[in-house]
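Ops channel
N.P.: pipeline sanity check, posting one input/output pair.
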């Protein structure tokens, strides 16, 4: 039986979660971070993505993030994002747990999105913890965004050296423990502790459905159904088959 149909049949009789990474947004022309043509091939990750570097030289780190905010704000959700939103709306997807910071799942219509690595759509003050919307700042005109308390704001993303947001991660673990399936899409599953999520689900009996262009460590260790291909084609096909099975 075709793996698309196998996946749809499993999804159509249960409830589960999606676990996504950079590969779900590359069809929206957002580059990934780790591939040979990704962002960290052009920039030194140690200089721009570690919290101690931000504290030492926020001006330099902000030059990098201004470009990312501009780039990400122009991006539109693709068919994979919208298919997950539809799967949620018809009652089979409880949440999207994402490592992405681009906000495209929400733009695509998903309501319950857990952002393990934070979001570039918001800024946060390390001094008073107040948060702001990135879109409310004109980064063409200002050198550094400032909080009302006078301190420099930080992109509300998880830098290396920072913990994951505890409440978000705990909620993700809770969902992983109770889900019947996990759709792993566009991630190689090598960044921890986020990558624990599908493994936690697998240990508790979940079926792992993986959609990636290439096989990964997840494929080798826990995947039950592997669909090799582009997420913006395969995920909508799965959702269409779920709809056929349930008569929608």
């Amino acid at each position: 039986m075709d793996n698309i149909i196998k996946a749809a049949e499993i999804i159509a009789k249960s409830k589960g979660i999606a676990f996504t990474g950079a590969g779900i947004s590359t069809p929206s022309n957002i580059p990934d971070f780790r591939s040979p043509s990704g962002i960290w091939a052009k920039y030194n990750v140690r200089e721009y993505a570690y919290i101690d570097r931000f504290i030492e030289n926020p001006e330099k780190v902000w030059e990098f993030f201004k470009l990312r905010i501009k780039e990400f704000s122009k991006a539109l959700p693709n068919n994979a994002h919208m298919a997950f939103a539809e799967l949620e709306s018809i009652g089979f997807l409880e949440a999207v747990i994402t490592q992405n910071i681009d906000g495209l799942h929400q733009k695509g219509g998903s309501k319950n999105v857990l952002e393990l690595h934070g979001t570039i759509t918001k800024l946060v003050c390390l001094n008073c913890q107040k948060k702001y919307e990135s879109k409310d700042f004109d980064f063409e005109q200002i050198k550094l965004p400032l909080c009302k308390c006078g301190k420099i704001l930080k992109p509300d993303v998880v830098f290396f050296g920072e913990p994951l947001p505890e409440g978000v991660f705990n909620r993700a673990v809770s969902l992983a423990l109770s889900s019947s399936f996990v759709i792993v899409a566009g991630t190689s599953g090598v960044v921890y502790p986020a990558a624990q999520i599908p493994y936690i689900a697998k240990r508790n009996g979940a079926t792992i459905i993986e959609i990636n262009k290439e096989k990964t460590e997840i494929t080798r260790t826990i995947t039950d159904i592997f669909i090799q291909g582009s997420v913006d084609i395969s995920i909508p096909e799965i959702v269409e088959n779920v709809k056929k099975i349930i008569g929608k």
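N.P.: looks fine end to end. The first strand starts at residue 16 and ends at 20.
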